[in-house]
Every structure is written in C-alpha cells, then in structure tokens.
C-alpha cells in the first residue's frame, strides 16, 4: 500500500493553515475529538473514507484518528479535491489518495489503493466505495462492521441495494440525520452553490430568472439563497407535495420544457439523471448558464449538449461555451460537476461541523453495535442527532427554553380539556 | 335530540353567502364532494364533528352529507363559532350545537347533545369528543369505528392516551398529513394569526420586536409572516434541533425570561401550558401585547396575570388592558384564545381545502377499514396525501415535471457510479 | 354653520375608546400636542381638514386644537369615514361633516359646510378642498395662508395647478416628507392594503400571482408585504427606472395586457386613471380579484367592467361579483375605493404618527411663514423631517450612533486621500 | 510618458478572456460603444481614468477609445487592480499604470505618470486625481473641461471642496445617477461584499450576527443580502431617518458600542473614518471578523487594533489574525480595504454596465458642455439617467407599461376630483 497519491506535498503548509482556519469554525467536532482522545473508542479499527477532500473533511479525519482509527482517505469526486489539504494530511502520515482533476481511471485506482487498508468501517459520499466492495472486493466484506453514507444520492443508491437484498453490511444514512440534512443540505448547499456560481461567472443574481430543478432540502436552500440575492426563482419538481410547497413559498413551478425557455441560469440538484437534456437545450435563450449541484455529473446531459454544438470553447476558468448550430451560446459551469465544490470551497465549516459530528459518532456507533445490525440502511440514532444539536447551540452561546415540570407533565397527560 | 342550539336562525342567509364564497376557494373538497355524491360511501354512517364552526367547516359538512352520512356538528372552541354559519347549516337541516361566546358548561352541553346521534365516526379538533366519550360515554364506544383528529394539540393528547393503553378506538391523525401540517399549520396559521392581531389592534408589524413561542409548523409560519411584514422576530423553543433551525433561519433564539424583557408583541403556539407566566409578566415592557394561537387558552397564564393586576379594562373589542400594580399595562387579545379564529376568520379556505380533503377521505377510510385497525393513532395513508396534493395542483392550473422512464429507472438502480 | 353631519352621535363612546387606543401608538404626535398646549401656536387660526376620518386623524385634530386652532373636519373619501370617530369628535364639540357611504352630492355638501368656518389653513388628502376653493370659493382665498397636502395623488394635482399658474396660495407637500412618504406610503399602505384584502376575502396570499400596478413607495410596500405573505408578485410600471428596480428586487415586470392573463389578484396604486380597463378584463382568469389602494376610485375602469357584465351580485360585504357575458366572474373589492380604508382601518397609528406629526408642524410653519411663501408646492422643511425622525426613535427607545468630532471633521474635509 | 507600469504583460490573454466574458454582460455599454464608433464624439480629447482596474472598467475604456479619446488608466485603490486586465489593456496599446499590491508611494507615482497625458477630462473613483491636480498640478487645470466622480466617498469630498470654493473645474457626480446609485451601490455592493467575505473566510452567513455600519444605498444592499443568506443583521447609523428606515425594515439598530459586543461579523460602509475603533475592539467577542466595503481603508482603525495586539498573524490569504493582549482574536479581512474588490471581483458586470454607461455619456456631456458649467458638483442630467434605464430594460428583454393618452392627460390635469 502506498503512502499517498497526491498532487504536491509542497502544498502542505497552505493546507495546514486552511485546515486550522476551518477547525476554529467546527466546535462540535472539536468537542468530540477531545472526548475521542481520552476514550480512544476506535482503537484497532481501520476506516476507508471516500469523501470530498476538503478542509472540513481533514477535521473529521483528525477526529477519527484521535479516536484511534487507522485511516485511508480517497476522493468522492474527481473535481472536488483541495490539493493543499491532501498534502497537509499526507505530511501528517495519513494515507491520502486524491488529486484534483484526476480522470475516471485514476479515480478508481485511488479507491482501490485505499481499500488495501482492509477497512472495518467505510465512509462514503455517493456510495462509490460500497459499490466497489460489493462488485469487485467481496473478500473485504467479512471484516466490515458497517458503513456511513453522507449524501442523498448515495442513500438513494443504498436503499435500492437493500431493497434488492444486495446490501451485505449495515449502513448508517448520516445524510438523514436532522442535524445533517436540514442544515448542511439546505444552508450549506444553498450558500456554497451561489458562491460557486459567483466565482465562476461573477454574474449578478438580482433580476435573473433562476431555474432550480429539485425542491428537496438542497433545492430549498438554493432557491432561498437565490431569492435572497434578488433572483426570480422557478422550481422544477416531480413530487406533487414538494411542488405545492414551492408554490406556497412564492415560487413559480413548471415542467422543465417550459422553464427552459425563460431561464437565465439553471441549477440541477435532484439526484437524478438527464434533468436537463436535448429538448431543453433546444429552446434555451442565448447565453443561458447551466450548472449542477447534485452529487453526480449526470444531471445535465452533456453528451446531448455536445452533439447539438458546432464548437466548445473554454471561455474562462470553469466556464465552457457551447456554440449551438443555430449560434445560440450555452455556458456550462465546472463540466457539470458539483459547482459548489468545483468553483468554491464546498459547504462552510459551520454546517460540516454538524454533519461530520454525526459521522464521527456514527462510526463509533457502528464499531460498538455494527455486528448486531441487519444489512439495512439505518437512520442515525435520535440521541446522536440531539447531542449534536445541543453541542452546536452551546458552542454558539445560545441558551434555549426549558420545560417546567408542569409543562412536561401537561404534554404527557390527556385528561385536561378545553 | 334537539335540532339545533345556535344563536339566531335569522343569520342563515349571511352564512350561506359566506359559505358559498369559501366553497369557490376549496376546489379539492368540491371534487371529492362530487365523487361522494355519486358513490355515497358514507351511507348509514353517523358522524359527530367537533370542529371550529366556520365557513370552511361548512363545506366539509356538505361533503360528508353528500357521501350519505348523518351529521351532528358542535364547536371545538367557545370563541371560534361563526354564528351565521351555524344558522346556515341548521336551516339546511343539519344538527348544529354551537354559539359563539358560550361558557364552559354550555360548551360541554353542546357536545353531549351532539353525541345523542350515536356516532360511528368522531371528528375532533383538540380531542374533546374523544376525551368525553372515553370518560363519560363508554357506552358509545362499541359502535364507533374510529376517529379523526385535526390539530397538533389533539394528536399529542391522543398519543399520550394510546401510550397509556387508554385509547379504545383507532384514530387517524389528519393533522400529520403532509398536505395538512405543512400547509394549514404553516401558511394558514401564519397568515390568519397576523390577520387576527391586525384586526384586534391595527398595530404596525414593521419595527416591532415580536416573540414567537414555539417553532413547530405553526410557529414557523407565524415567524415567517411576521418577518414578511417587517417584524424583528425572536423565537422561544425547547427542542434543540428546532431552536437551531430558527437560528439558521436568521431569528434570535433565547429563553422566555430574556425574550419577555424586549418583546413588543408575544404570540404563543406551543401546545403546552403556561408558556408565558408570572415571572415573564413581571419583566415585560409597558404596553406589551400578548396573544395565543395554540389550540387551548392555557398557553398564557391568565390567572397569574390577573393576580398581578390592580385592574382589568376592556379597552376595545378583543383587547383587555391589565394594569399591573406598578402601572405597567399589558394588553391581552381575545382572552388568550386562538387569536386567528377569535379576531379573524381562521385559516383561509385554500388551506382548509387540503386539510378537509384529508378529513373527508379519512372518514371514508375509517368507514371501510376502521374495524381492522388497532386502537392506535395512525397517520393518513400516503396515497390520500398524494391524491390531495395532485388535486390541488390541478385545481391551481399548475403542471409539474414528470420522470422519464430513464430517470425512474436510474432512481431505482444502484450499479451506476461516478 | 351646522355643528355636525354624522351618522349617529350614539357611537361616540366606541369611537373614544378606539381613539385612545391609537393615541397610545402615536407618541410623536403626543409630544407635539404637549408642546402645542403650552405654546398655543395656532391661536386664532381656522383650519379646514379634509382627511380620512379615522382614529389617527382624530389625534391630529386633538393636536391642532391643543395648539389653539378652530377646526372643521370633513371626509376625503366617501367610504373611509369611521362613523364612531366622527361621533366622538362631534361630541367633543369639533365640527365634523362625514358619514361613511355618503354619495357624491353629500360628499361635496360636507366640504361646503366645512368651508363655512372660513379657513386660514387647508389640510387635504387628495386636494379636493383646494380644488373646490379655487373653482367655487375664490372669496376665501384672501384669508388663506396656505395648505397642506397629504397624499401623492393630491401632490400630482397641485404640481399640475402650480405649473399652470393656477395655484393661488402656497401648499406644503406633507406627502413628500421623507418621514411621511418612505414610511406611511410604504409600510402603512403595504400592511393595510393586505389587511383590507384579507378582511374582504380571507384568501390565502401564499401561492397566488399578485399583480401590483405602480412601483412608487406605496407599490413597493404592497409588493413587499404581498411577497412577505408568500405571494408571487408581478409589477406593472411605466417609468423605466422604477421598473428596473422592481426587476432587481426579484419581481417580474410586464405590461398590464400580459399581467392581466396570469393574475389571481390585482392591486392598483398608481395615482392614474383606467389602469385596469376593458382590454384587461377581457383576458382575465375566471374568479380574478380586482381592487385599488390608490387615492381615487378611477384606477379600475368600473364602467367598462359593468358594460362587459351580464349581472353584478353583492356576493358578500365589500365583494361584488361581475359575471361577464362569457360567464367568467371578476370580483371587485370595495367598489374600487381604497381597500385599506374601506375594508380595514387604514394605516396603522405608528406610521400616521409620523405623517401627522409632519402635518401638525407644517400647519404651524404655514401659520408663521405662509405669507412669505410663493404660490407654489413646497417640500416640508428638512428640520421638521429630522425632528420627527428623532422623536420617533426616542419614543421607540432606540439609540443611534453619533459622530465623533474626528468623524464630523473628516466628512467635511477633502484634503485627506488614499 | 511611459507605455505602462503593470505586473506582467504575459497575463494579457487571461485578461482578454475575462474582459470578453464581462463584455457579454454589459449590453448597454456596448450599445453606446457602437454609437461612439460611428460618431467619434471624443475625438482629440485626453482622459485620465483613476478607477478600479477590473474587467468592467476595461469595457468602459474600450468605449471611450471607440469614441476617439486618448486614455491613461491608473488604479483608484492599491489592492483592487486585476493584473491580467492591466496586461490586456497594455497589450492593446492603452497606457495603464496599476499593479495589485502597490504601496502608497507607487500608487501616487502611477497617478503622476498618468497625468502626463495632459487630460481634458478626469474620471475618479474616490477623487484622488482631482485632489492631486488641485494640490500639486494646478498647471493642468487650464485645459481640463471637467471631471466625473464614481463613488459616494469622492462625491462627499468634492462637495466639501466646492463648498470651500476650492473646486477649480466642474464635476459630474456620476455616483448620484439613479441608475448608478440605486443599482450599483445597492445590488452590486451588496452581492460582491458577501462574495468577498465568503472567498476570504468561507463562513456560513446563516445564524451569524452581522453588524453593518452605514445604511446608505451600499449598506442597504449589504444588509439585504446578508439577511438573504440567513444572517441576523444589526445596523449602526448616524442619521435618524435612515436609522428609522432600518428599524422598519426589520433590523436591530444600535450604537457601535453595543453592537460591538454581539457581532460575529462587522462590515463598514459609511464613507467616514474610524467607524470601528479602540473602544469597540475592546469589547468584541473572541474570533470576531472585521472588514470594510467603503472606499478608503480608514473606516476600521487598524493602528488602534495593532496597538491593542500582542501579535498579528497572516492566517490565510486575506485574513489577518490580531491576537489581543487578553488572548481574544480578531480577524481583519483584506487589510481593511474594499473586501468586495480585494477578495472577490468587485461589482458584477450587469450593474457596472449601467454605472459606466452613465460615465461614458457623462464624458461626452462634459466634452460638449463642460466649458459652460460652473465649478460645481453636478448631477447626471436626467435624460442620461432615463436613457440608461431604457437601454437596460431593452437589453434584458423586458417590456414595460406605457401611458395611454387619457392617462397622460389625467396626470397633468387638476380639475378632475373625487
């Protein structure tokens, strides 16, 4: 097993600085790290972490290491690695296999290399490690106590596997923790997606018609932040209940075939494939901008766009101009990969603080309970969720109301009437 | 059994006009009514409905009657009855027992009278009928197939009963349907509470410090609408996860002891007792305004306020001035009862349309399946929820996106990777 | 001269209660009243006030009276009079000529009666008194020192008069004071218009397409509050700069011919005539709701609507149903008069506090300086504006930043560079 | 006179790409450029432009050049120069004197070099050229027809000069054009300031207490965008009227001494000096973040901060950590210079499009009318303002309402009454 596959170990110092900066904005994870240092609950456990290699992830890795775990870190997306962070971690002796801009072959080589650590726990952001283990490395399954999955897209995949009886070890859907999903997916994705688009384009949001595909937690966040910057938001959604909520929140709702005609900026965040496709490109306005904040780069049908185009120009960093045969121009950001990670820094540390606090506690939970669990997708235990929320409020210096005895009794009684 | 106990049958025409007006804004319920007229699924069934007697409720009653049910309607709150609506329904031959401003004794007499219909199904908004049947009219239980409960407070009571093994027939928590809770509780309570306060006081919301106790769906709605009118909102909440969400939504969060000192206007909507009490009144600013939008008038500790006061003046309709011994004045709206029903018209018909569509379909479900259910609190079946959402979007003329075959397949597959 | 023309003197007590309630929310005006009581700056002066006869106006009248003025009050709109307020003022001995629902003939009779007081100062809300004096009572002009005008529509009329050389005495455009226009027109009209519509219809704003015609201060307020309640707002505006601002604020902007096809609710607030007319009614959706918050009931072309209709039904209080010949129904609120005054209570006292503080100080200013002014429309002197703002902040208990000596010097220097 | 003083001519291609990208988002300026190419209205005129050297400025320079002007460009801020843009312009033969990070001596050397072109018109963003000409280069004044000033801070300085009789040629306050001030200052500064802070820190705005000093157009924009991202905004303001507006907009308002205790993030944008100073640093929370978006880096008293500190660490790019003697840490962004230009790209091109369209047309106006103007500060002629607004709406494809003849007549008449 190699020590690391990274871009340049010389970037370590810059990485350390940035990791330290984010550490200061992740107080919950630090509290857990301090506890882990004392209790060493992960002693003797090997963890493969296939996550976005960012400053916030570095703090999760430090926490797991403080708990006694051996770790191999690999990227969960070829474009999201921060090379200075990879260097910083490698220079501390952590096994890191991630280079920003690696191609698909290299991407899987890195995961393969990481698996040589022989994991007891797998951490995923998109389920790629689990999928690879189940398809090509079944020999590892016997030692694995369980896994954690960080993102909606991965949870969808794993639920499909479990439904097919194909899942061979238990997985905690960290994504579904309330202190993860409602905060990281909404406030984190919302802010960082707008940030990524600004970095790539510097366009003014005010006055633009902004089409958001998907009104889950991520979509709600993006819609709210886009409106918060003066955009006029249109929602495209397939579920009636969510579509109705978008209407009541004051947004226009319509199918993509209609939205495609009026949008200045399109953002996909559905977890599904080909959300923007040939029939939509064909009716877009000249100079429409298209990007994605969903996990995989499949939400925009880039092959279809390429086929419609007479030429493709790299017009600036992270902006490709597709010149259609009728001379309309469509701008694609970050090659359709997660624009918040490719063009900005991903989620702010304050939300990753909660998400990764859930991760760290979930790893401990798997280590302690994994062998007693079924090969299913589990929710994060509610006590973990509550503990994270309380730690966060404490770290922010916010005191909340407490129930009096009378109030607690009232909530549990049923004899008192009108 | 009497035909009706109402204020004045002469108000019928005014009531009919207003019922017709709301009917035009309840298209989903009308669709169901048309179907019920054809299929008569409630033939032979008697229903006791203990609900706020409003124009929207009248449309639910019409729908149930169209389905073949016999109905006795009684009020779920002594202050929320619209006397013209009671008159209109009575003049159509429906048994109605409700007078605005009835005292507590009359309130229970009305429920007693309604129970004489010998119900097969009970509809509640606050669980008063169920509580009365379980405590004083167990003889009716044998014929009852099940009940429906409309509001959070009632569901809390019923869950407590079920947990104690005290619930003797199954109940559908209509409140918990997504198309009820997320819409009626949020958008309905939000708008109508602000409306009620404006009617009672005509105060300007802009620039006021507005303290909202409770950040459930109702509290979120009130906070959002108060901010939408320029208020500076402070949230008081006991659950860490909800408190954290309020912080991230940009509100200040603090215990009531702190909030009490700075609020210009206080709104309780927690489902709990004594949320604003002696220790809070003692530190409020002169001319603070206090009101409630939770189901029962127990959230504000009015006896404690009275005890602190040297006099109480009815300063105008729905506004009582409590002059404290130190001469500070505290204004209590609508005697601490639901301000949105007491001082305005309750939820707008567009949201009651969905809530009562769930009710109507839940009554049918109980009639068909009740005897096969346990004596537990059940959620509304998801098909009912989806059907209501789809009907609503259709009625609003809104078309949503549909999955392509490829997209549907992708969502259920797990072999496709990065 | 008669003592009063009002609906019913028996309503006085109810009016007094409500006037007292609003007085408590008008602290700036009270400060001025206390000063006027001491200094009696209006001794010997007669004032004709042609204003909406509301609780807030009553407090202005009390302030002017405290200053020593003789007063005759008449309504500035046939539908906006609060009869209990008229009664309360009459019972105090103030000359009041106003009945809610008076017809046009009575309306002008009332103004005629009021003019018998032989005014030295005229107060208008819509310039009707000034117009009448200039057209039919030039004999009064000799004694008049000047006038005040409260609303945008009136200022437009008066500027047109002044431009034609037709204005025969100076007028202060109280409307244009920053502490009036930016607050009363925006926050006051915004909130009270939504309030009026809710009272008339109880419709849910969330999810509605709401067309606001006019993006001046009033229009901005209505748009902001409608969005704050979940509406999807479309702006119709004729000035490019304002239209562009609406776009940047995240609203859709289009001509009325387009907006007419998609609106659920239409609100006019332009100060112009026939903003919604035949060609617009012809393309509206069934059950569209149409109302006005501009000063005169000319913004909606009601004769054109009547002509298109086969019948008109008073469907409920303040709602008329126009059944068009093709069976579409259009609902007109409050006969096209100011919906915030006709269906709610007009602006909240907190904003009228500032507007009327400007009025009171402007009357004093005219009394002291009127004869030295030209026959032009003047802005409120900036010292009055500043004084009102400071008094208001003080009354709200808000402390603001103050410049240090160094900062003050810096702002007036120009030699300091980069 | 040298050809250029820039960082690296090799950066030209990257600069050209980015200039072209912004050009596509500046349609109004392009329309004017096309007209200038035909009419050559600036033939024979030399212009010194002391502006932020950004992609948007490059498009202004191209427009002026198309009009026939000779141009020397220099930076208006030592940290805002985009070196690739300077290179691109230099490689086209335009005289450019600007290097990002130049010290104060170099800064003034660059302006001196630019003045060698012997200008007929000066363009400023902060009035530095005008100040230098008036203090050290009075010999140039004879040939100068006039100047343009782009920013609030500069206009304040120039008004002070004019009031002292010290201004020796007329200046157009381009800043005060409605299509500049209300758009660029509000939407541009609002978005780009948040963008700069995100780039420097990646902090989450949601849940933070954000103190904005100054509630002019820039401050309003920053407050609105910070709230739009979930921040809880506190306003510090010295003018009562603006402070009151902030209150009514739902913000808390207080003096800096109070705000300093509770802020997580501070943003100054007042145009004044020492807005955050010793007494404020002394009470700030540990890890407070301080930055500036006002023109000069004097709003934060950095010398005072330095004096209070035991060490200063460059913690990452654009973030300096000041460790106070009591161990609290205060983070200063971008050395207190304009954070939107230092850490992001300045205003988006869509708003600079309008600002620079005003600039280009103002230069033409000065050339044609300058010698007939007094040595005063003038507003942009309203026709220019209107023309810019119309061109912008046209470019965005937005059609607005037009007055009918009847409506136009009504607005100018005064005989029509109630």
UniProtKB/TrEMBL annotation, chains A, B, C, D:
Example GO molecular function: adenosylhomocysteinase activity
Cofactor field: NAD(+)
Positions bound to NAD(+): 151-153, 185, 214-221, 237, 293-295, 340, 347
Gene3D superfamilies xref list: Adenosylhomocysteinase-like, NAD(P)-binding Rossmann-like Domain
Protein keywords: Cytoplasm, Hydrolase, NAD, One-carbon metabolism
A Pfam family that the UniProt record links to this protein: AdoHcyase_NAD
SMART domains, sorted: AdoHcyase, AdoHcyase_NAD
Pathway listed: Amino-acid biosynthesis; S-adenosyl-L-methionine biosynthesis
Catalytic activity: S-inosyl-L-homocysteine + H2O = L-homocysteine + inosine
Domain S-adenosyl-L-homocysteine hydrolase NAD binding: from-to ranges: 185-346
UniProt-annotated binding residues for substrate: 54, 125, 150, 180, 184
Subcellular location(s) per record: Cytoplasm
Superkingdom classification of source: Archaea
PANTHER family, per database record: ADENOSYLHOMOCYSTEINASE
Family (UniProt): Belongs to the adenosylhomocysteinase family.
UniProt function note: Catalyzes the hydrolysis of S-inosyl-L-homocysteine (SIH) to L-homocysteine (Hcy) and inosine. Likely functions in a S-adenosyl-L-methionine (SAM) recycling pathway from S-adenosyl-L-homocysteine (SAH) produced from SAM-dependent methylation reactions. Can also catalyze the reverse reaction in vitro, i.e. the synthesis of SIH from Hcy and inosine.
Other facts noted in the record for this chain: SAH is a product of SAM methyltransferases and is known to be a feedback inhibitor of these enzymes. As a result of this inhibition, organisms have evolved efficient enzymes to metabolize SAH via different pathways. The pathway found in methanogens differs from the canonical pathway, it uses the deamination of S-adenosyl-L-homocysteine to form S-inosyl-L-homocysteine for the regeneration of SAM from S-adenosyl-L-homocysteine.
Protein name (database record): S-inosyl-L-homocysteine hydrolase
Organism in which the protein naturally occurs: Candidatus Methanoperedens nitratireducens
